[in-house]
Amino acid sequence: MKTKKQKDKILFTPGPLTTSQTVKQAMMRDLGSRDSEFIAIVNEIRQKLVELGQANPDEYTAVLMQGSGTFGLEAVVSSTVPPNGKLLIIINGAYGKRLAKIASVLKIDTITLEYPENTIPSLREIEDALKADKKITNVSVVHCETTTGIINPIKEIGEFVAKSGASYFVDAMSSFGAVPINLPECNIDYLVSSANKCIEGVPGFSFVLCKLSSLKETAGYARGLSFDLLEQYQGLEKNGQFRFTPPTHTLAAFRQALEEMETEGGVKGRAERYRKNYETLLEGMRQMGFKEYLRPENQGYIITSFLYPDDPNFSFEKFYENLNQKDYVIYPGKVSDANCFRIGNIGRIFEADIKALLVAITQTITEMGIKLK
Ligand SMILES: *Cc1c(COP(=O)(O)O)cnc(C)c1O
Q: CB under 8 Å to 68, separation ≥6 — which residues?
Protein backbone atom coordinates (compact mmCIF):
# COMPACT_ATOMS: atom_id res chain seq x y z
CA MET A 1 0.00 0.00 0.00
CA LYS A 2 1.14 3.50 -0.74
CA THR A 3 1.01 5.90 2.16
CA LYS A 4 0.72 9.63 1.60
CA LYS A 5 4.44 9.89 2.17
CA GLN A 6 5.23 7.55 -0.71
CA LYS A 7 3.26 9.49 -3.30
CA ASP A 8 5.28 9.75 -6.50
CA LYS A 9 6.54 13.18 -7.44
CA ILE A 10 6.20 14.30 -11.03
CA LEU A 11 9.55 14.23 -12.79
CA PHE A 12 10.29 17.08 -15.21
CA THR A 13 13.79 15.77 -15.79
CA PRO A 14 15.88 14.13 -18.52
CA GLY A 15 15.35 10.70 -16.91
CA PRO A 16 14.46 8.57 -15.13
CA LEU A 17 11.01 9.86 -15.97
CA THR A 18 7.47 9.57 -14.72
CA THR A 19 6.01 6.28 -15.95
CA SER A 20 2.43 5.00 -16.10
CA GLN A 21 0.95 2.83 -13.34
CA THR A 22 0.49 0.02 -15.85
CA VAL A 23 4.19 0.11 -16.82
CA LYS A 24 5.14 -0.15 -13.16
CA GLN A 25 2.62 -2.95 -12.60
CA ALA A 26 4.07 -4.97 -15.48
CA MET A 27 7.22 -5.38 -13.35
CA MET A 28 5.43 -7.12 -10.52
CA ARG A 29 6.44 -10.62 -11.48
CA ASP A 30 9.42 -12.90 -11.52
CA LEU A 31 10.37 -14.26 -14.90
CA GLY A 32 13.13 -16.79 -15.44
CA SER A 33 15.75 -15.61 -17.92
CA ARG A 34 15.46 -18.86 -19.91
CA ASP A 35 11.69 -19.00 -19.75
CA SER A 36 10.02 -19.08 -23.17
CA GLU A 37 7.69 -16.24 -22.14
CA PHE A 38 10.64 -14.04 -21.26
CA ILE A 39 12.46 -14.91 -24.48
CA ALA A 40 9.32 -13.96 -26.41
CA ILE A 41 9.29 -10.59 -24.62
CA VAL A 42 12.89 -9.94 -25.61
CA ASN A 43 12.19 -10.86 -29.24
CA GLU A 44 9.13 -8.66 -29.39
CA ILE A 45 11.05 -5.70 -27.95
CA ARG A 46 13.89 -6.14 -30.43
CA GLN A 47 11.50 -6.27 -33.37
CA LYS A 48 9.51 -3.25 -32.29
CA LEU A 49 12.62 -1.15 -31.75
CA VAL A 50 13.74 -1.78 -35.34
CA GLU A 51 10.26 -0.73 -36.49
CA LEU A 52 10.49 2.48 -34.45
CA GLY A 53 13.72 3.23 -36.33
CA GLN A 54 11.75 2.85 -39.60
CA ALA A 55 14.22 0.18 -40.68
CA ASN A 56 14.00 -3.16 -42.44
CA PRO A 57 14.63 -6.08 -40.04
CA ASP A 58 16.77 -7.76 -42.72
CA GLU A 59 19.13 -4.79 -42.60
CA TYR A 60 18.97 -3.59 -39.00
CA THR A 61 18.85 -5.24 -35.60
CA ALA A 62 18.33 -4.15 -32.00
CA VAL A 63 20.89 -5.27 -29.42
CA LEU A 64 19.83 -4.84 -25.80
CA MET A 65 22.54 -4.06 -23.28
CA GLN A 66 22.29 -4.23 -19.49
CA GLY A 67 22.91 -0.97 -17.64
CA SER A 68 22.05 2.68 -18.15
CA GLY A 69 22.32 4.60 -21.41
CA THR A 70 26.02 5.26 -21.01
CA PHE A 71 26.67 1.50 -21.01
CA GLY A 72 25.17 1.34 -24.50
CA LEU A 73 27.36 4.25 -25.62
CA GLU A 74 30.42 2.52 -24.22
CA ALA A 75 29.43 -0.72 -25.97
CA VAL A 76 29.36 1.05 -29.34
CA VAL A 77 32.54 3.10 -28.88
CA SER A 78 34.49 0.12 -27.51
CA SER A 79 33.22 -2.45 -30.05
CA THR A 80 32.90 -0.64 -33.37
CA VAL A 81 36.09 1.37 -33.75
CA PRO A 82 38.73 -0.86 -35.43
CA PRO A 83 41.94 -1.48 -33.42
CA ASN A 84 43.81 1.11 -35.50
CA GLY A 85 40.75 3.23 -36.19
CA LYS A 86 40.20 6.91 -35.58
CA LEU A 87 37.07 8.46 -34.13
CA LEU A 88 35.72 11.93 -34.90
CA ILE A 89 33.39 13.22 -32.21
CA ILE A 90 31.19 16.26 -32.83
CA ILE A 91 30.57 18.04 -29.54
CA ASN A 92 28.19 20.79 -28.43
CA GLY A 93 27.35 19.73 -24.91
CA ALA A 94 28.03 17.47 -21.94
CA TYR A 95 26.93 14.25 -23.64
CA GLY A 96 29.25 14.80 -26.60
CA LYS A 97 32.00 15.33 -24.04
CA ARG A 98 31.02 12.08 -22.38
CA LEU A 99 31.56 10.24 -25.68
CA ALA A 100 35.04 11.79 -25.83
CA LYS A 101 35.67 10.68 -22.25
CA ILE A 102 34.69 7.11 -23.10
CA ALA A 103 37.04 7.14 -26.11
CA SER A 104 39.84 8.58 -24.00
CA VAL A 105 39.49 5.93 -21.27
CA LEU A 106 39.58 3.29 -24.00
CA LYS A 107 42.71 4.97 -25.47
CA ILE A 108 41.04 5.30 -28.87
CA ASP A 109 42.65 7.73 -31.32
CA THR A 110 40.14 10.60 -31.32
CA ILE A 111 39.67 14.05 -32.80
CA THR A 112 36.89 16.39 -31.84
CA LEU A 113 35.04 19.25 -33.45
CA GLU A 114 33.74 21.32 -30.57
CA TYR A 115 31.06 24.02 -30.65
CA PRO A 116 29.43 26.24 -28.02
CA GLU A 117 26.45 24.66 -26.30
CA ASN A 118 23.96 27.00 -27.99
CA THR A 119 25.32 26.40 -31.49
CA ILE A 120 24.57 23.84 -34.19
CA PRO A 121 27.78 22.15 -35.45
CA SER A 122 29.04 23.45 -38.79
CA LEU A 123 28.27 21.00 -41.61
CA ARG A 124 30.97 22.61 -43.70
CA GLU A 125 33.62 21.97 -41.06
CA ILE A 126 32.48 18.39 -40.62
CA GLU A 127 32.73 17.81 -44.35
CA ASP A 128 36.18 19.43 -44.42
CA ALA A 129 37.40 17.37 -41.46
CA LEU A 130 36.29 14.15 -43.12
CA LYS A 131 37.98 15.13 -46.39
CA ALA A 132 41.18 16.26 -44.71
CA ASP A 133 41.73 13.20 -42.52
CA LYS A 134 41.32 9.93 -44.36
CA LYS A 135 42.22 8.01 -41.21
CA ILE A 136 38.81 8.71 -39.68
CA THR A 137 36.92 5.40 -39.51
CA ASN A 138 34.08 6.38 -37.17
CA VAL A 139 32.01 9.49 -36.47
CA SER A 140 29.81 10.17 -33.44
CA VAL A 141 27.30 12.87 -32.64
CA VAL A 142 24.51 13.41 -30.11
CA HIS A 143 21.03 13.97 -31.60
CA CYS A 144 19.22 15.89 -28.85
CA GLU A 145 21.98 17.35 -26.63
CA THR A 146 20.12 17.03 -23.36
CA THR A 147 22.53 19.57 -21.84
CA THR A 148 20.45 22.31 -23.45
CA GLY A 149 17.76 20.60 -25.54
CA ILE A 150 19.37 21.57 -28.86
CA ILE A 151 18.65 19.25 -31.80
CA ASN A 152 21.60 18.43 -34.05
CA PRO A 153 21.17 17.80 -37.82
CA ILE A 154 21.89 14.05 -37.84
CA LYS A 155 20.58 13.49 -41.35
CA GLU A 156 22.77 16.15 -42.95
CA ILE A 157 25.83 14.99 -40.99
CA GLY A 158 25.02 11.40 -42.02
CA GLU A 159 25.28 12.32 -45.69
CA PHE A 160 28.86 13.51 -45.29
CA VAL A 161 29.79 10.53 -43.14
CA ALA A 162 28.36 8.12 -45.71
CA LYS A 163 30.33 9.84 -48.49
CA SER A 164 33.53 9.48 -46.48
CA GLY A 165 32.94 5.77 -45.93
CA ALA A 166 33.19 6.09 -42.12
CA SER A 167 30.81 4.37 -39.72
CA TYR A 168 28.16 6.66 -38.17
CA PHE A 169 27.07 6.51 -34.53
CA VAL A 170 24.26 8.66 -33.10
CA ASP A 171 23.51 9.06 -29.39
CA ALA A 172 19.75 9.53 -29.64
CA MET A 173 19.22 8.75 -25.97
CA SER A 174 16.75 11.52 -25.22
CA SER A 175 15.06 11.76 -28.63
CA PHE A 176 14.45 8.22 -29.92
CA GLY A 177 10.75 7.41 -29.79
CA ALA A 178 9.71 11.06 -29.66
CA VAL A 179 11.51 12.65 -32.61
CA PRO A 180 11.06 10.65 -35.84
CA ILE A 181 14.33 9.05 -36.97
CA ASN A 182 14.65 6.98 -40.13
CA LEU A 183 17.83 4.93 -39.65
CA PRO A 184 18.60 4.14 -43.33
CA GLU A 185 17.71 7.66 -44.49
CA CYS A 186 20.11 9.13 -41.94
CA ASN A 187 22.81 6.60 -42.93
CA ILE A 188 23.08 5.53 -39.30
CA ASP A 189 25.17 2.45 -38.51
CA TYR A 190 24.61 2.56 -34.73
CA LEU A 191 22.05 4.42 -32.64
CA VAL A 192 21.79 4.23 -28.86
CA SER A 193 18.87 5.02 -26.59
CA SER A 194 17.68 3.61 -23.27
CA ALA A 195 14.65 2.12 -21.55
CA ASN A 196 13.86 5.11 -19.36
CA LYS A 197 13.69 8.00 -21.80
CA CYS A 198 11.04 8.73 -24.43
CA ILE A 199 9.66 5.19 -24.61
CA GLU A 200 8.72 5.70 -20.95
CA GLY A 201 10.00 2.48 -19.44
CA VAL A 202 11.89 2.12 -16.17
CA PRO A 203 15.72 2.23 -15.96
CA GLY A 204 17.83 -0.89 -16.41
CA PHE A 205 19.01 -1.32 -19.99
CA SER A 206 20.00 0.52 -23.12
CA PHE A 207 19.59 -0.57 -26.70
CA VAL A 208 21.72 -0.26 -29.79
CA LEU A 209 20.09 -0.22 -33.21
CA CYS A 210 22.73 -1.59 -35.55
CA LYS A 211 23.08 -1.85 -39.29
CA LEU A 212 23.78 -5.57 -39.67
CA SER A 213 26.31 -5.32 -42.47
CA SER A 214 28.38 -2.91 -40.35
CA LEU A 215 28.04 -4.86 -37.10
CA LYS A 216 29.13 -8.09 -38.76
CA GLU A 217 32.41 -6.48 -39.82
CA THR A 218 33.42 -5.71 -36.22
CA ALA A 219 34.69 -9.14 -35.14
CA GLY A 220 37.76 -8.73 -32.95
CA TYR A 221 37.23 -4.99 -32.34
CA ALA A 222 35.78 -5.23 -28.82
CA ARG A 223 37.91 -3.80 -26.03
CA GLY A 224 35.94 -5.47 -23.23
CA LEU A 225 33.88 -8.55 -22.54
CA SER A 226 30.63 -7.22 -21.04
CA PHE A 227 30.48 -4.44 -23.62
CA ASP A 228 31.13 -6.67 -26.66
CA LEU A 229 28.31 -5.58 -28.96
CA LEU A 230 28.81 -8.30 -31.59
CA GLU A 231 28.88 -11.07 -28.98
CA GLN A 232 25.80 -9.66 -27.28
CA TYR A 233 24.07 -9.71 -30.67
CA GLN A 234 25.21 -13.25 -31.42
CA GLY A 235 23.97 -14.41 -28.01
CA LEU A 236 20.55 -12.87 -28.55
CA GLU A 237 20.31 -14.35 -32.05
CA LYS A 238 21.43 -17.83 -30.98
CA ASN A 239 18.84 -18.49 -28.28
CA GLY A 240 17.09 -15.20 -27.55
CA GLN A 241 19.03 -14.87 -24.32
CA PHE A 242 21.38 -12.33 -22.82
CA ARG A 243 24.91 -13.56 -22.13
CA PHE A 244 24.68 -12.43 -18.51
CA THR A 245 21.73 -11.80 -16.13
CA PRO A 246 19.12 -9.67 -17.92
CA PRO A 247 17.03 -7.00 -16.16
CA THR A 248 13.89 -9.16 -16.44
CA HIS A 249 11.55 -6.79 -14.62
CA THR A 250 12.68 -3.78 -16.61
CA LEU A 251 12.16 -5.69 -19.85
CA ALA A 252 8.63 -6.72 -18.87
CA ALA A 253 7.87 -3.07 -18.08
CA PHE A 254 9.40 -1.96 -21.37
CA ARG A 255 7.22 -4.30 -23.39
CA GLN A 256 4.20 -2.69 -21.71
CA ALA A 257 5.64 0.77 -22.41
CA LEU A 258 5.98 -0.07 -26.11
CA GLU A 259 2.37 -1.20 -26.18
CA GLU A 260 1.23 2.07 -24.60
CA MET A 261 3.29 3.95 -27.13
CA GLU A 262 1.51 2.17 -29.97
CA THR A 263 -1.86 3.05 -28.40
CA GLU A 264 -0.78 6.68 -28.31
CA GLY A 265 -0.08 6.65 -32.04
CA GLY A 266 3.60 5.67 -32.04
CA VAL A 267 6.37 8.21 -32.49
CA LYS A 268 3.94 10.67 -34.06
CA GLY A 269 1.50 10.57 -31.15
CA ARG A 270 4.28 10.89 -28.62
CA ALA A 271 5.86 13.77 -30.52
CA GLU A 272 2.54 15.60 -30.48
CA ARG A 273 2.07 15.24 -26.72
CA TYR A 274 5.65 16.30 -25.93
CA ARG A 275 5.42 19.24 -28.31
CA LYS A 276 2.22 20.37 -26.63
CA ASN A 277 3.96 20.05 -23.23
CA TYR A 278 6.85 22.13 -24.55
CA GLU A 279 4.65 24.84 -26.05
CA THR A 280 2.54 25.11 -22.89
CA LEU A 281 5.67 25.31 -20.74
CA LEU A 282 7.38 27.91 -22.91
CA GLU A 283 4.33 30.13 -23.10
CA GLY A 284 3.73 29.97 -19.34
CA MET A 285 7.39 30.56 -18.45
CA ARG A 286 7.65 33.51 -20.85
CA GLN A 287 4.48 35.00 -19.38
CA MET A 288 6.10 34.89 -15.94
CA GLY A 289 9.19 36.59 -17.38
CA PHE A 290 11.61 33.66 -17.62
CA LYS A 291 13.91 33.55 -20.61
CA GLU A 292 15.08 30.40 -22.37
CA TYR A 293 18.76 29.76 -23.07
CA LEU A 294 18.55 28.61 -26.69
CA ARG A 295 17.32 30.50 -29.70
CA PRO A 296 13.86 29.10 -30.61
CA GLU A 297 15.05 27.75 -33.99
CA ASN A 298 17.61 25.48 -32.28
CA GLN A 299 15.31 24.33 -29.50
CA GLY A 300 13.74 20.88 -29.55
CA TYR A 301 10.64 19.88 -27.61
CA ILE A 302 12.41 17.35 -25.35
CA ILE A 303 13.85 19.53 -22.62
CA THR A 304 14.13 23.30 -22.14
CA SER A 305 16.90 25.28 -20.43
CA PHE A 306 15.86 28.51 -18.72
CA LEU A 307 18.23 31.23 -17.52
CA TYR A 308 18.29 32.04 -13.81
CA PRO A 309 16.26 35.18 -13.18
CA ASP A 310 18.37 38.27 -12.67
CA ASP A 311 17.23 38.82 -9.09
CA PRO A 312 19.37 38.58 -5.92
CA ASN A 313 16.57 36.65 -4.18
CA PHE A 314 16.93 33.76 -6.63
CA SER A 315 18.80 30.67 -5.48
CA PHE A 316 18.43 27.51 -7.54
CA GLU A 317 18.69 25.30 -4.45
CA LYS A 318 15.77 27.10 -2.77
CA PHE A 319 13.75 27.19 -5.98
CA TYR A 320 14.34 23.48 -6.53
CA GLU A 321 13.56 22.54 -2.92
CA ASN A 322 10.40 24.62 -2.85
CA LEU A 323 9.10 22.91 -6.02
CA ASN A 324 10.20 19.55 -4.68
CA GLN A 325 8.10 20.17 -1.56
CA LYS A 326 5.15 20.67 -3.89
CA ASP A 327 5.98 17.27 -5.51
CA TYR A 328 7.47 18.68 -8.72
CA VAL A 329 11.02 17.71 -9.62
CA ILE A 330 12.96 19.90 -12.04
CA TYR A 331 16.64 19.61 -12.97
CA PRO A 332 19.79 21.66 -12.54
CA GLY A 333 21.48 23.13 -15.59
CA LYS A 334 24.58 21.71 -17.21
CA VAL A 335 25.53 24.59 -19.50
CA SER A 336 29.12 25.73 -18.85
CA ASP A 337 28.82 29.43 -19.73
CA ALA A 338 25.40 30.41 -18.34
CA ASN A 339 23.39 29.79 -15.18
CA CYS A 340 20.41 27.68 -16.21
CA PHE A 341 17.95 25.16 -14.91
CA ARG A 342 16.17 22.59 -17.03
CA ILE A 343 12.60 21.42 -17.32
CA GLY A 344 11.89 18.18 -19.19
CA ASN A 345 8.79 17.81 -21.34
CA ILE A 346 9.10 14.02 -21.61
CA GLY A 347 7.78 11.02 -19.67
CA ARG A 348 4.19 10.21 -18.71
CA ILE A 349 3.29 13.86 -18.28
CA PHE A 350 0.53 15.80 -19.96
CA GLU A 351 -0.47 19.40 -20.58
CA ALA A 352 -2.38 19.42 -17.27
CA ASP A 353 0.84 18.47 -15.41
CA ILE A 354 2.72 21.29 -17.12
CA LYS A 355 -0.03 23.72 -16.15
CA ALA A 356 0.13 22.52 -12.55
CA LEU A 357 3.91 22.97 -12.59
CA LEU A 358 3.48 26.51 -13.92
CA VAL A 359 1.13 27.31 -11.03
CA ALA A 360 3.68 25.88 -8.58
CA ILE A 361 6.48 27.95 -10.16
CA THR A 362 4.35 31.11 -9.92
CA GLN A 363 3.73 30.40 -6.23
CA THR A 364 7.39 29.62 -5.64
CA ILE A 365 8.75 32.82 -7.15
CA THR A 366 6.20 34.83 -5.18
CA GLU A 367 7.22 33.03 -1.98
CA MET A 368 10.87 33.72 -2.75
CA GLY A 369 10.15 37.39 -3.43
CA ILE A 370 11.47 37.26 -6.99
CA LYS A 371 10.46 39.89 -9.51
CA LEU A 372 10.89 38.82 -13.10
CA LYS A 373 9.63 41.74 -15.09
C1 LIG B 1 20.36 10.55 -20.54
C2 LIG B 1 21.42 10.68 -21.58
C3 LIG B 1 22.61 9.92 -21.55
C4 LIG B 1 23.04 9.07 -20.41
O5 LIG B 1 22.24 8.13 -19.99
P6 LIG B 1 22.46 7.39 -18.58
O7 LIG B 1 21.25 6.53 -18.58
O8 LIG B 1 22.46 8.42 -17.49
O9 LIG B 1 23.71 6.63 -18.64
C10 LIG B 1 23.46 10.02 -22.63
N11 LIG B 1 23.22 10.83 -23.66
C12 LIG B 1 22.12 11.60 -23.70
C13 LIG B 1 21.93 12.50 -24.88
C14 LIG B 1 21.19 11.56 -22.67
O15 LIG B 1 20.10 12.34 -22.71
A: 194, 203, 206
